[in-house]
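TL;DR need structure tokens for one chain.
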Amino acid sequence: YTDKMKEMSMLSLLCSCFYSQPHPNSLYQYGDLQVKGLNKRASGQSFEVILKDPGQSGDKAQPQPLRISPRKEVSLEELHKRLEAAEERRKSQEALVLKQLAEKREHVQEVLHKLHKENNNFSKKTEEKLIQKMEVNKENREAHLSALKQRLREKEVHAAEVRRNKERQTDLSG
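>> reply
TL;DR here they are.
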């Protein structure tokens, strides 16, 4: 088809060189293709491409009807064998599906077990961190309180010393 289109475009190029306007009823035949030139515009020339039906081609051969081979008689024994084979296939398919479901269930249980284990580990680690943080806070608070008590004692000692000095001065002056 593409080769025919290439040939057609070459032919139309040659024709357009000789004839500026295509003949209104010009019809070209390429095997099973018919090409009809429509009109020439400033943007280019347009064509109508008509494909023939396969029935319209030169060969008038009639399609051959399908031949159906006659069915042979199937014995009762053969039918039982087929039914047993079908039953075996069904059972094996069912067993395969059950096996896949069991594997899937086992995988889900493993994933849930792993998730539960990781969750417990995370909880334990978080609890340990929290306890450690609380102990550090308690130690810091106790250290801060003891420092405050120490400064208060030092201020009391200093205040007592200042009072003694003041009493001495008043005793000496008076």
